[in-house]
Amino acid sequence: MNNENMQAIVERPSDEEQHHPMEDLLRMDRMPHIWCPGCGLGSCLTAFVEGLIKADVNFDKVAVVSGIGCTGRVAGYIKLDSYHTTHGRAIPFATGMKLANRDLTVVVFSGDGDLFAIGGNHLIHAARRNVDINVICVNNFIYGMTGGQNAPTTPLKAYSSTAPYGNYEQPFNLVGVAAASGASYVARWTALHLRRLTDSIAEAANKKGFCFIEIVSPCATVFARRNMGGTGLDLLKEFQKRSIIDHSADPTKIPIDMDGKIICGEFINEDKPTFWENVQSGIKSKVEKEVEWEEMQRKLRQKVTKKSKSME
Amino acid sequence: MFKQSKLYGEFFMQGDIACAEGALSVGCRFFGGYPITPASEIAERMAFRLPLLDGVFIQFEDEIASMSSILGASWAGVKSMTATSGPGVSLMLENIGLGMMMEVPCVVVNVQRGSPSTGLPTSWGQADMMQARWGSHGDYGSISLCPKSPQEFFDLTIVAFNYAEKYRLPVFILSDAIVGHMTEKVVIPPVEEIKLVERKYTKKKPKDYLPYEVVEDLIPEFAKAGDGYRYHTTGLTHDERGYPVMTEECQKICVTRLVEKIKKHADEIIMLEERDIDDADVVVVAYGITARTVVPAIEKAKKKGIKVGLLRLITVWPFPEKRIRKLAQKVKGFVVPEINLGQIVLEVERCAAKYVTTKSITHPGGGIHNFNDIIKAIEEVAYE
Ligand SMILES: Cc1ncc(C[n+]2csc(CCOP(=O)(O)OP(=O)(O)O)c2C)c(N)n1
Ligand code: SF4
Fold first, then answer.
1. Other CB atoms closer than 10 Å to residue A219's CB: what's the count?
2. CA nearest B137: which of B163, B191, B172, B100?
């Protein structure tokens, strides 16, 4: 086919006229991004942006908080208020932000190492408190940014640069941890389930309480090289082959291993009081306390003032 | 505007409580913390008082989360604070560095106890002085204030917030277990009399706003989350847009400004109390509780005919190097008592080195200086 024929079939806009459909929500001035060709993170970011569009949120009121890692770079590419914080600490940062301004939609977007190794304690406590934030965790089974070391998700027997004989540590089942800790919403998708993932992100954006979404996504470079071979696309196909959707699965019983099934779905979607709602209802007696407090202070003040007068 | 605390008058109040009240009166409405002796009373008071003032109190799982949360709260536009002791500060340091790099206004209170490690939980020390200056990795300018009494713990908490807002950084209050736990008269002024400094919120249009613009006073304008600016900020070395740039030039501009913005404003930041300095032969440089314990020794030395003055550092960082250098040119020497094995004395020595000698009187913590040791040191310097 020659170019002339192509021109005849589709009218193409000139380069100047071409716009990226997500241009308004991405920092185009930072492109190209740093992710490797074939990495799943691009699709995860796309799903995130589309999910937010679908949720019809006020973009001025969305804050994206990331920790450190390849996934953590998402904060830098999204054109919203975005905070690239320290390794593992995105959740408490986001908690502070959300509690200080309850009008914000606060989303934490980070990696499995960031959220479950160094930041594991914050994750379970934020889920326990049911803080009204969304956590999107990209699970690539490895530490991508630092060059392929073991992660708390690395499957048993998989190789990593710090597990040259194969990993001998039992991995975390992320959805299981989030569910057991008290999250209001828990889902798992692979980076291939784009439509369902987008729906989940949209659902979480408008849902109150602690929402957790795991995205199983290929690290084409440092995980695949040692373990599966192939390109990013091959990995996605492999994930597709292995994944089944079962919304009724018990999230605590569906770990991911080297060659078994990857159970995906929306496992938990509950309504329960959030941290802030509990604070509000817990201080019902606030007005009485306030009166009591001011009365006490008034008496105390009189007493001290009298005493210091008598000392003069 | 926030719902003001209407508490005012004279009180018989513990230092830690005075600190919490100081924070409330200047408008702190977010406290994230983790209990530790001798700072817990601050959290306890905040837990009771903040809900009454429509503020937020949250007890976190650790100090790392606490520090991180107050940065988030501050980005949301709320004055925020945490309070802890040495072991807690050790955990907070990485995020204190993030606060320095992102330039986030907030206050970190360290009620110091004996250290290192778990040290003396219920007893005192002043051994975190250098940690407050250099604790987090990297170069940055920092501000630390040292109260000597519950009244000052109240007053300096207000100042700390005002400095944090004005210069955009986490500001330290370096108190200690004695000041934290002692109960004395505290006068709380009516709300109208409390000076509030608000941060420089940008009025620019979002498209013209640069979160880290290099401006004349070196303090960039602030935009809070949710105001439609859609800015990016990071702990990575960044340019004026807040975008990471991994170059030597960018590192130079970014980090130098963090140091220079404090240096440039040092004269407005530094507060000192001077007693009998003008014709002094010997100057005792002290801070915090030590500045009170040395007073009887100074008085005794004066009775013995020695001309001795007291220079009390209210601001410890930035260090008042200009003042010490100037004094060094006319006195016989300095005496620096502190409840550590010699930290701030290094700074005094550095400034005085060309001119006179400096005598360090150390104390390992868990007690205060012996009266006679101070007199002896003053005499040694006077008659050297
Ligand atoms: C306190 C601290 N320790 C270690 C590091 C180094 N580090 C950077 S990213 C990373 C792992 C990230 O792994 P993960 O969260 O799985 O993200 P990925 O890169 O795989 O997306 C580590 C250990 C750091 N930045 N800070
Ligand atoms: S190292 Fe792996 S996770 Fe990181 S960008 Fe490359 S492919 Fe993606």
1. 30
2. B100
CB atoms within 10 A of CB B71: 29
Does residue A219's CB lie within 6 angstroms of at least one atom of ligand 2?
yes
Quick one: average pLDDT of A20-35?
91
Helix (H, G, I), strand (E, B) or coil at B34: coil
Residue B143's H or E segment, with its range, is none
* Inter-chain touch B244–A84, beta carbons under 8 Å: yes
Model pLDDT, residue B276? 97
Q: For residue B184, which phi and psi values (nearest 5 degrees)? A: -145, 180
Q: In this structure, are residues A73 and A42 in contact, taking their beta carbons and an 8 Å threshold?
A: no
Contact B316, B129 (CB under 8 A): yes
**What is the rounded end-to-end Cα distance, in angstroms, of chain B?**
59
Confidence tier at A309 by pLDDT (50, 70, 90): low
| 3-class secondary structure, B221 | coil
Considering just the CA atoms, what is the radius of gyration of chain B in Å?
Answer: 21
Confidence of residue A1 (pLDDT cuts 50, 70, 90): very low
Which amino acid would we find at residue A245? I
Which of these, A146, A82, A90, A83, lies nearest to A115 by C-alpha position?
A: A90
Question: Cβ A304–B12 below 8 Å, yes or no?
Answer: yes
3-state secondary structure of A301: helix
- Dump pLDDT digits (tens) for B236-246: 999 999 999 99
Say yes or no to pLDDT of A312 above 60. no
Nearest to A122 among B65, B71, B80 (CB): B65
ipTM of the prediction: 0.97
Position B68, amino acid: S
pTM, full prediction: 0.95
At residue B63, the pLDDT reads 98
The answer to whether the CB of A44 is under 6 A from ligand 2 is no
**Closest to B287 in 3D by CA, of B311, B312, B270:** B312
Element (H, E) at B133: helix B129-134
